[in-house]
Amino acid sequence: MTDEEVLYQTKDGVATITINRPTKYNALSIDVVTTLRQFMKQAETSPDVRTVVLTGAGEKAFSAGADISEFKDRDSKTIRPLTENGQELCKYIESMSKPVIACINGHALGGGCEVAMACDIRYASSNAKFGQPEINLGIMPGYGGTVRLPRIVGLGAAKEIVFSGDPILAQEALRIGLVNRVFDSVEALRTATTELAVKLSKKSGAAIKLIKKSMNNAWIMPSDKHLALEVNLFCESFGTEDKKEGVAAFLEKREAKFKHR
């Protein structure tokens, strides 16, 4: 893989990571998945980055999924590193302390849909299509699709999508809650995504980290334990510099300037 197959750039506190294989519908080869994770870690550890945007090059695809050519001649044992690689990427995105926005500019299928679901917020263009077509290959989703999709859209809708393998259009994805917003064009999508990313980069990074820690337990913890966790994290937020700045700015009727700690 060449470095150019995944691009990384930063501006205004936002790291934009782009899958750059437009002639292959931004397919997720093993090397691309590995590089995506490396760039996510770079964004996570960079003090100059407050928000991450993940997108695909061109207007046809966010990512059409795994590179199927890598499935050939693999069996139940030799496929394991590939799917574990994809799952580790998705788990890392989900666990990051910074917001990750999926800017979905076209097809988000299979692994592409699964990676998008690991992001915190999903914005899509009107030409976007979503789906888990693995059933058509005689296999099943392996990057977390059978776990995250039901949690996002509900069990019935998720089973219909995964069992049928049929793609759904952007407006249907919006209706069932798979995406947050849909835009008329890729240009409008990218503009709105950038605006949101810059906006979030100015919010308290310390608070966002604690909020994500609590909300990522929404489907894992029993409600009483989750509520107790929220109390603990809420109290923890009162020990941050951002809390002092935020309260002072509110009382002084000025814009807060957070230090993200």
Descriptive account of the structure:
It is a single chain. The chain has ten helices and ten strands. It has two domains: 3-201, 2-enoyl-CoA Hydratase, Chain A, domain 1 (Alpha-Beta Complex); 205-251, Lyase 2-enoyl-coa Hydratase, Chain  A, domain 2. The strands form two sheets. It has a six-stranded mixed β-sheet with strand order 1-2-3-5-7-10, sandwiched between helices. The chain starts with 5 loop residues before the first strand and ends in a 10-residue tail after the last helix. It is of the alpha/beta class and 261 residues long.
Strand residues, percent: 15-25%
Number of beta-strand segments: 10
Nearest-angstrom radius of gyration? 19 Å
Low-pLDDT parts are none
Q: Write the H/E string, N to C.
A: EEHEEHEEHEEHHEHEHHHH
Structural class: alpha/beta
Distance between the termini: 37 Å
Q: What's the level 1 CATH class of the largest domain?
A: Alpha Beta
Say which CATH homologous superfamily of the largest domain is assigned: 2-enoyl-CoA Hydratase, Chain A, domain 1
Mean pLDDT: 95
CATH architecture descriptor name of the largest domain: Alpha-Beta Complex
Q: Helix segment count?
A: 10
Helix content: 40-55%
Q: Which strand order do you get reading across the main beta sheet?
A: 1-2-3-5-7-10
Q: Which fold name is given in CATH as the topology of the largest domain?
A: 2-enoyl-CoA Hydratase, Chain A, domain 1
The total number of structural domains is 2
Rough outline: globular
Largest sheet: 6 strands, mixed
Topology of helices and strands:
Layout (H helix, E strand, L loop, with lengths): L5 E6 L2 E6 L10 H16 L5 E6 L4 E3 L16 H16 L4 E5 L2 E3 L1 H8 L2 E5 L3 E3 L13 H9 L1 H10 L3 E2 H6 L5 E3 L2 H16 L3 H11 L7 H15 L3 H11 L10
Parallel strand pairs: 2-3, 3-5, 4-6, 5-7, 6-8, 7-10
Antiparallel strand pairs: 1-2, 8-9
